[in-house]
Amino acid sequence: MKRIKTDVLIIGAGSGGLSVAAGAAQMGADVVLLEGHKMGGDCLNYGCVPSKALIATGKAAYGQRHSAQYGVADAAGEVDYAAAKDHVADVIAQIAPVDSQERFEGFGVNVIREFGRFISENEVQAGDTVIKARRIVIATGSSPLVPPIKGLDGVPYETNETLFDLREKPGHLLIVGGGPIGMEMAQAHIRMGCKVTVIEGGKAMGKDDPELAAVVLDTLRDEGVVIEEDAKATEISGTAGAIEVQAEDGRVFSGTHLLMAVGRKANTDKLDLEKAGVKPSKNGIEVDASLRTTNKKVYAIGDVAGGLQFTHVAGYHAGVIIRSILFGLPSKAKTSHIPWATYTEPELSQVGMTEAQAKEEHGSAVEVVRFHYNHNDRAIAERKTKGFIKLMVVKGRPVGASIVGYQAGELINLWALALANNMKMGQIAAMVAPYPTIGEVNKRAAGAYYSPRLFENVWVKRVVGFVQRFVP
Q1: Is 69 inside a domain boundary?
Q2: Which of 52, 195, 297, 311 is a plausible cystine mate for 172, CB 3.0–4.6 Å?
Q3: Parallel/antiparallel/unpaired status of strands 31-34 and 172-176
């Protein structure tokens, strides 16, 4: 058995683990990184990257079939499904070198391609190597949650870990789960020429502001996606090419392929956490505000920390703990400034509180400001006028922003900046945006906050009247 010592041991080479490894190694720490599967983790290989690549295929096909509005003749927009998957693979291949073992070894990181498991509070075994570390970071991410539905174990099904390897275009794709992954894949596949039925046990996009979610869901329905809500799947049967999903209320849905997209579960099974005195939680691993576990030498970041499950959160967590691990300085994670987006068309994005959350916490002190895309000149020129922005403002400061529409995932960046830095609405209103841009939606929304204060204020009018009469 080989034994080594290190300053920082990282278990998992997904986005969070890689960020810690790169930062710590380049700032002089001795770093060991363990990865038993693919470098880059879920995001690169099965999640963010391949899903957005496939969404781009669907968008291109849809654009060909709906180009007459721009004076260009509509085309068939036929999709070669296998070629689309080649496109997905090529996108992954282009990004993979950034997450590669070779690159991180170039930073001075000792990369060991084995799964790790605790054997003591500060030791982890990986294959035939035991690593003793001053600090250990668990960054093992999450995997698709496959619920124990009757009959599912006897039926072929896809998850996000297998879908992007599928070469045969589904004739009728059944998707169990109406969250972001389910809805993104539903739209991508309907645009690639598949029939699609989404089966959701509650409300589709139920974690989002219902006013914004309705815009997305109505669009998907208009494109042909069948969305069945309050349809809890209780039994699944059939064989490849002929699958049935039965709901609790007796409804039965038939299709050729099945995608399970009901959520994620933290990857903790292989870690032997109890040997390190690390306490698990319902959604992963129990951590404090500094992302420390019940073993103060061990941190947990990203999906496994049991909070928001987004790649950018894992990267943010990495920055939080690097401050503690490398410099011994206090550093705490917060969530109030964390944005997220669903990459349907129109996109939906959120940062901070929704309208309901803001009103629950701040009551009548909340002002809700709206601005619609159909008043934005660039959106009109692009024929992308569906959607709006909604701002929740308390005492002149935004506490939340919700956007549905074209480039919503880009527009939310400004409000994430505002919330992270406790900015005032006046600072946003003072920004000059180039004309014509979609970004003017943000500027105009801030202006809409001030409009009644300026144009409906009797004292403003009196002052203006006085100046016009008496000031030479």
Answers
A1: no
A2: 195
A3: unpaired
Q: Binding residue per annotation — 201? A: no
40 is in an annotated binding site: no
3-state secondary structure of 435: coil
Say if residue 178 carries a ligand binding annotation: yes
The amino acid sitting at 434 is: P
205 is known to lie in a ligand binding site: no
Residue type, 302: G
Residue 450 has a pLDDT of 84
* Model pTM above 0.85: yes
Residues 200 and 303 in one domain: no
In this structure, the answer to whether residues 21 and 109 fall within a common structural domain is yes
Q: Domain range holding 306?
A: 2-39+100-143+265-327
pLDDT single digits (tens) 173-223? 999 999 999 999 999 999 999 999 999 999 999 999 999 999 999 999 999
Ligand-binding site membership of 263 (annotated): yes
142 marked ligand binding residue:
yes
Residue identified by tokens 């506490």 is 399
Three-state DSSP class for 103? helix
Residue 144 counted as an annotated binding residue: no
Asked whether residue 183 is marked as a ligand-binding residue, the answer is yes
Domain assignment present for residue 361? The answer is yes
Say if residue 181 carries a ligand binding annotation: yes
* In a domain? residue 89: no
The annotation status of 52 as a binding-site residue, yes or no, is: yes
Do 188 and 243 lie in one domain? The reply is: yes
Q: Cα–Cα distance between 467 and 461 in angstroms, integer?
A: 10
CATH number of 272's domain: 3.50.50.60
Using pLDDT thresholds of 50, 70 and 90, give the confidence band for residue 34. Answer: very high
Beta partners for residue 367, in sequence order? 393
Backbone angles phi, psi at 308, to 5 degrees: -65, 135
